[in-house]
Amino acid sequence: MLTRLHDALRLRTSPVIFFGSAAIIIAFVVGTIAFTEPMGKATNAASQWLMTNLGWFYILGVTVFLAFLIFIAAGRFGRVKLGPDDEPPEHSGGAWFAMLFAAGIGSILMFWGVAEPISHFGDPPRAAELGLEAGTVNAARDAMNFTYYHFTLHTWTIFTLPALCFAYFIHKRNLPPRVSSIFQPLLGEGIHGPIGKAIDIIAIIGTVFGIAVSVGLGTLQINGGLNQLFGVPETAGWNLIIIGVVCGLALISVSMGLDKGIKVLSNFNIVVAVLLMLFVLFAGGATLFIMKGTIESFGSYLVNLPELALWNDTFANTGWQNTWTVFYWAWTITWSPFVGIFIARISKGRSIRQFVAGVLAVPSAFSVIWFGIFGYASFDIELNGEGGLVERVVDDGDIPGALFAFLDHYPLAFPISVVAIVLVIIFFVTSVDSAALVTDSMANGHEDFNPLGQRIFWGVAIALVTATLLVFSGSDGLEALQSTIILVGLPFFIMGWFQMYALLRALREDAGELPPIRTREWAQVLPPEEYERREEDAEYSTDDYVVEPTFTSEVPVLTDPYEEDGAWAEAPGAETGTLPSRTGSGIAELPEGGRDESR
Description:
The protein is mainly alpha-helical. Helices cover 69% and strands 1% of the residues. It is built from 22 helices and 2 strands. The protein has helices at residues 2-8, 15-34, 36-74, 93-102, 106-122, 127-130, 137-151, 153-172, 184-187, 194-230, 236-256, 258-283, 287-310, 320-334, 336-346, 352-384, 389-395, 402-407, 413-444, 452-471, 477-511, 528-536; strands at residues 524-525, 545-546. The protein has a two-stranded parallel ribbon. Helix 3 packs across helix 8 (153-172). The protein is globular. The two termini are 14 Å apart.
């Protein structure tokens, strides 16, 4: 029945994955609107239970992911190419770094650049535990520690792990661009079966909800900026209008294609964002303070990183970490498949070591600079200027309006704020645009031509979920976004542990296990006096002993472990290029004609 409906709609995708994902999204939207209060209470209760009882699991998980990536990159598998062994990288280093900058970073920087540091400055996370007083120099230092913790290595670890898995299984094993492909060493042909399809449906749902949360945060920020500049009320109606405009522009960009849509907008955004950052650095009169503070705070972050990476607010138990760190990790991991596939696409031909170092270091370095400039500029306003940011952001809870309250202290505040609003809009347009393309490819299992209507559907789905969470959830918009995404993020964290195992197993299968190290062997040595006694005593033999240290075998001759010896050709499945059955990955034989009609 699904296939007949699929063909009648002239789609070109996987019927089970497409209609399964669509059904869940529609059910959520309809159920939330029809049963607003019960759905809101259920979501809040479930998220509160997770934060209270499993918050530590989110904290531990990201730190373990980071340690795993360092282990893989530093070990012998770090030299493995993400693609054919002799193929050079598709993109130059400069172009690759520029595209990494554009991958999922813009919307985060714009929303949290001011809001994060000033929130922790006015309400220190470890005030009770360390005795920090709000608004002091020590509070500023700890605020930057947490800001860097939230937006540098750990955030990009969440993107890097699935991105590395995608890059390996898409470019090395030539599998479809789906999350289920990562589990091929465990499932074999089962990636095309019910389990594989269930994994892909969960991944698509998570991606849609993750991007919806991002668009929701952007909507609140845009509305806050319009309110400050033009007096536009911050109401549900205006939120719906903003969602419609952002997603409408994204659909136009989708219809224009990758080169004319996303690429042009992304290049424009990068230039304007850097210019805005430089304006903040030089126009406020605190350039030296900002530059010195950024360098100093980065050193403080590195010193405190081991503690922060495992800190669980055990003694004070304030609940702060649940609404900040746990929310960040859950939100980020839900749209990690979308960012991961993008990063994997542009990284073909690079080694695992280059990949991990580049994807972790380059965006993290830019985040250090961005948050350092905006953070210390905010501190300067509070400590040496007119102040008012803490009152606006912390006391009044206006996190979405933080950027515009901050820019109000700079010259040319009105035009610069208008530029910032345009920048936020375009960042979220490119997010929805690229998310629609990637989600469609995950549903299809390939990146070739597909009907435009499919991509438009995913853009509309993101808009519907955003509007439902922000307007029809029956609670505060930001609270609804946080509660929902913490629930959606849990299965992704569980899958992350299996992703590590699957990647390590695939590397061992494809690169081979290292044999035990063999060394030259030596005879047993006796002291001279004992050797002489045993020679004189007929009960003992000295045949197996020596006095002078003597080796009994030569140094082993090393051979090329990748030299073909012909044995592989006799392995089952060798004629089809599949893995031997001993690996557990399964042996797939293409049916006659090269297509399996049962799927």
